[in-house]
Structure formats: structure tokens, C-alpha cells
What does this fold into?
Amino acid sequence: MKIPFFIACGVLSLASWACSSPQPLELHYNGPATYFEEALPLGNGRLGALVYGDPCQFRLSLNDITLWTGEPDRGLEEPVYPWVEIVREALEAEDYAQADTLQTHLQGHFSETYQPLGKLLLQFPQAQISQYRRSLNLADATATVSYLRDGKPFEARCFVSAPDSAIVIRLVSAEPLEVSLELSSELPHRTEAAGNTLISDGYAAYHAYPGYFTPKGERFSYDPDRGIHYRTVVLCPQAQAQGETLHISGVKEAVIVVANQTSFNGFDKDPVKEGREYKASALAQASAAAAKPWKALQKRHRADYQELFNRVSLDLGRTDPAVSALPTDEQLLRYAEGEANPELEALYFQYGRYLLISSSRTPGVPANLQGLWNESMDPPWSSNYTTNINLEENYWPAEAAALPEMHEVLLSFLHNLSVTGERSARDYYGVQPGWCEAHNTDIWAMTCPVGLGSGDPSWANWNMGGAWLSTHIWEHWLFTRNREDLERDYPVLKGAAQFCMGLLVKKDGKWITSPSTSPENIYITPEGYHGRTLYGATADLALVRECLTDALAAAREVGDAAFANEVEAVLPDLKEYQVGASGTLQEWYYDWADEDPRHRHQSHLIGVYPGHQIGAGSDLAQAAHRTLEVKGFETTGWSCGWRVNLYARLRDGESAYKMYRRLLRYVSPDGYQGADARRGGGSYPNLLDAHSPFQIDGNFGGCAGVLEMLVQSTPDGVEALPALPSAWPSGEIKGVRTRTGQTLDLSWKNGKVTRLKLSK
It folds into this structure.
């Protein structure tokens, strides 16, 4: 049902709202977590905690999103862009093997690594435990662990407050407490306890190599006079210091606050010489929080969080009460076997919104590959920002799910990238003006191609990250219609478009990129060569077209007529999409075979989603659909999330829903090695995305996919239920934002819209 813009402030009412009673928004379990993938994530966008909830060893893993290895990226000493022409010459000679080899000269350093802050351990005496329950309430962002200790009630409540910049833990017991508090970290640190306060000062490495690269020498380089430093403060008014621990004794209630600050002071500031003051501020934040009553802390936290979270509600129908009463991990297991559970499906959607609020509130430091939550010194892929899909996917639901403030964090990061990206565009590609971003980045806004001369060009040499990320600027404008934001961000979008145009070359009268790759995919030439480097990959051209189209619209909006004319001169001559002999959308310049037709990356479909170039029902849409059919339904978690959106944009609700169910397939914790272990992509017991291992982008992609099935919009109008699956015959969603700059409330029954309201 398409609702045009001109009736956007009206109400279509055919019946009352489909559903009225609220659904539970809670993950709950009958036992403590043993593995990371079972623990409950909490966060205020900077500080994070994972709650395990063991009755005797009550552990919280701690994170600060600004705690990374490294120092500001100073760029190359000598430019390497002359190699671009040499690679192009090899490609013109159709010598693809030589082009792959030459690409290694265009590879810079790797990203730095996101680090764990440490662990807070609450040690309790041994006891007989019964009636155990561990839960995470999405409605108020609070984790609760309750049980009977030797027959007496005990409860621990935990949240991470944004207004008070602290992790807050409240212990309540029917019997006097006996608890010791220990703080540990794998980073170099020193811990001291005095009075009712525990203080730990430490620092991260000033350089680290990723786990998949074997350097000469140590993987981590430490120097107490370099790198990001931090202070963690644990304060409990009811505790007393004992050695390097705090001890709570003889009281029935205690409140523990944890604060942390790092010396990170910006992507271009030395964290020691120009670092932020962190010691006094961490202590002041902990002291201020501990001085407030529990109820005041809780009230401030709820008010802050719920102002964001309560903007959107979703009801997809009712689950059998006997099923919804089961622990979440059991529900997920049964769901994976085919059981219906619309409440779990709605919970997963809201969980995505919860995770975005919890991991994206620090300006210039967006949610990373694991959002906010990392326990490993050497996490998978450095827990960095991978920009050939993952960072973008993190923010797909931000605008439609009514969380533009979280999107602002990414947009502020793009300003940092545009600074370092100017150096990379100039020194690696000889392009001026303009900026680029390649395969990876980090808190220091690195933008160079990675690999150090040894990376596979299929991923290491990809350079379209800036083009892709900058499209978020125009999306933000469409949803918010905030002119100040557009004028602030327009130079960043323009710079990304300038790089695209500076990289283009003409072949057979059409603009293409050269050299080019299709992220992490490999082609096979008719001669049998398995190659990476080529010219005119479809994914490149899709991103260039999307970036230039957005930049053109933005230039017209802000009145930059000269640049609009430049873009208009290029767009018509970009090489068009091609349909291959097999009926799929062609990925390569020529109709070559793919080494892995079922590969998780589907970058050449960007024009379908998140782009806006290939409309449903067209011949190109049919080719894109055929591509998805070939790829199938077995893939990794984040790829599942992307395919939900692709199918939805193609108006195939049944396939989108099948893919959504695939995204919620139960995956065992990575450390679990039992005979009944379930591996592959899907969701872990705590509903975090299994790539596997854990990557948070699948959570955000799935959240966006639900919205895409129910509501699609353009600047000219809104379409209700464009890809509604038969599994959701009736339902209700409120608070969705649209590209008309409006908010949508929608209910439906038996697959038909019963009420629709659009408002400012």
C-alpha cells in the first residue's frame, strides 16, 4: 500500500489498532552464563558490562569503547600512487595475475585493536542455590539476577547509566552480605584499595598487529609513556578495603558503582602528550554516582534510556504462553526447529535497538565489530571497523528505528575519516581533492588500504569505504530534514564523491574504476585464472553511483550549483549494470564465473539495498533475485541480516522471513565443545549475532530487515507492508521514521492495513 507524501499528515483508519496489550521485552535464563555468548550485555554507549551472574563468582566483564591500542595515524612518508598507473597498465593488457601482484604495493598498515578493560569479580560464600533466574529487561536496560541462597532471597540488579557515567550494581539480601570485590585486567596496570574505593590505573599498547598477521617481534608493543591510559574506580559506600580488594560485610543492601575514563582525546591527539585528563574525572564520576540514592540513580537511568527506546513499539502476534514462559535459549532452540514464536521475533527486533542505544553514544567512536563488548586482548579482526559492510550495517536501523542520535555518532566519525582520508586519497591514489576509506579503520580514523604487502587484494585493496559510509549523510537528511546537520556534513559527502570521480577512468566510452575489486570475492577468467583485481567491478560502480547520486541531491539542496554540474557531467556515462548469461546480476566487468557463487558477500547488490538504484519488478531486480537464489539461505549471521533486507526490498516477503528465521537459528557458544554443539551463522543464546564468531552487525541488519518488510519509503511517499510474510498476518508497529521526514504508526489484520497514521 503506497501512501503519497501529500496526505502524509492524515490518518487512514479502517479499524481499531490490531493489538493493544504489551508484549514482554525480556531475555531470561534459568542459570548463570558460562560463556561470553550467554552473558547479558549492558552499556551506556561508552561503558559496557557483560553480566554472567554466577552465585559464588559473580562476574562482570568491563569495556570502555575508547580503550584501543595505538596512536594517531601519521600517514605515509613517501606516496605510492605511481603504482596505480602500473596496475592499470597490467589490467589493460589483461594480465590479471600481474595486477594482483602489483596491488600489494598499494597496501598500508593494519588497524589497531579494541581492548577489554577488565573484570569485576564479586565473590560470595558457597551456598545452596535454588529458584535461579537471570534476565535482561529491554524496557529499562537492567539486568537482574535473583535466587534463594540457603532458602533466603537474594537479588542483584545492574545497569549502566548514561547520565551518571557509571555502572551501577545493587545487591539486596535477606541475610547479611559477605562479599569481596576484586578488579583485574590483562593490560599493564596497578590496583590499590583504600577506604571504600578500589582504583586501577593502566595503559594499552601503543601498537598492535592483528591476530591474522604474524609480525617480526611482539604482537603488542607497550611503553608506559605511550598509548591510551585509563583509570577504573570501584566505589561501594558499604565496603571496606582489605589488601587490593573491597569487602562488604554485615549489611543486607549494598550499591556498587564503577566508573572509568581513558586519556583518549581525539583521533588526531597523542593520548599521553595531548591526552584527556582521566584520573580525577573517573574518581569524580564514581564519587558523584555513589553519593546518590539507588532510586535516584535508577530514575535518572530509566528516564534517559526510555526517552530513546520507547519511541518504537512492535507487535507481531502472540506466542503460545507455554513457549514464551521458557528461558530465551530454550525458545531459540525450539524456534530453530521450526516452532512459531512471533514474540521472540519482535524481541530480536527490539534487542537490535537496545544494542544500538547501548553501544553508540560516544561522539566520533561508533559501535565497532562487537559493538561495545569484548573480552579478548586479540579479538577477531581486532574488533575494529570493517567498512566493506559491517560498520555500515551497524547503522542501517538507526534512522527508521527512530534513533538518529545514535547515527550522529557515525556521522561525526566520518568527519575524522575525511581528514585522514584526504592523505590516503592523495598518497595512495594520486586523487585530489577528495577523501577515501579502505577495508578497515579504527579509533584513530585510519583510511589506508591494509595488508602490509601481504594482504589478499580481494579485501586488502578495496577502497570504496568512504563512498559507502558517506551515503549515510543523505539518509540522515531524508529521515530528519535537519538542515543544520546537512550543511555540517555536506563537505564530507562532497569529498567522498570527489574521490570517486577522481578515481574513474574511461573505457569504451563509459566511466569505470581501475583498479577494482569486489569485496572478498574471486572471479575465474575463461583461461582459468582465479583473480581479485580487475577493472569496473559492479560493486564499485554501484557505490560510485549511489554516492554521486546522493552528493548531487545534497549539492542541489545546499545550493552548490558548480559541484552539481560536475556530478551531472559524470553520472550519465557510468557503466550500466549487466545481466549475465545465467540470469544473475553480473558481478564482474565481463561475464566471468565466481569461485564461490554462494559467497556471504553480495556487494554487487548494493544498488538494491541499502542503495536505491534497482527497483522491484524491473529486469535488474529479477536478476538480483536470481543472484540471491543462487547464493541460497546458508550463510553467516551478518550476511543473513543483509539478505533479509535485500529480499524485502525486492518485495519477496516469504524469502525475507525465511532468511530472518535463519538469522535466529541457535548457535552454541564458541567455547562449548559438547557433542550437541551447533555451529555456523545465526544467534547465540544471548541473541548476539553469530558470524561466527560474534559480530554485532547481524543484530542490526536483522532489526533493519523487520522494518524493511513492514515499511518502505522514499522522499516522495511511504509504502506499508511491502514485503509482509504470511507468518505475520496481523500486527502493529508505532514510531517508525520515514524518508519523508515523518513518523508512521501502522496496524494490519489478515494482511491488510487497518490503520495508518503519518505525522511530523
